[in-house]
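Session log. Operator J.P. requested a structure for one protein chain; no other inputs attached. Running the standard single-chain path with token output.
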Amino acid sequence: MSRRTKTLIAAIVIVFFWLPFYALFIMGLARHVLPGAPWYVALLYYALAGTLWIVPIGLSLPWMHREPAPK
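Structure written below.
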């Protein structure tokens, strides 16, 4: 599979599947974890959640940029 095809597949999966799923999961989890929590706990939660979404994307980058195996 060419690099261009892998990049397209990864972009579609990330934008249409990973990000909406992650956002909904974090919002749902916040509804159960954060009610009545002090503002600094909510700030820490959203700062951490806002940073962690990038981990799976970072793990997909080596796959996307790997050159196809020579035939």
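Operator note: The chain has a mean pLDDT of 89.
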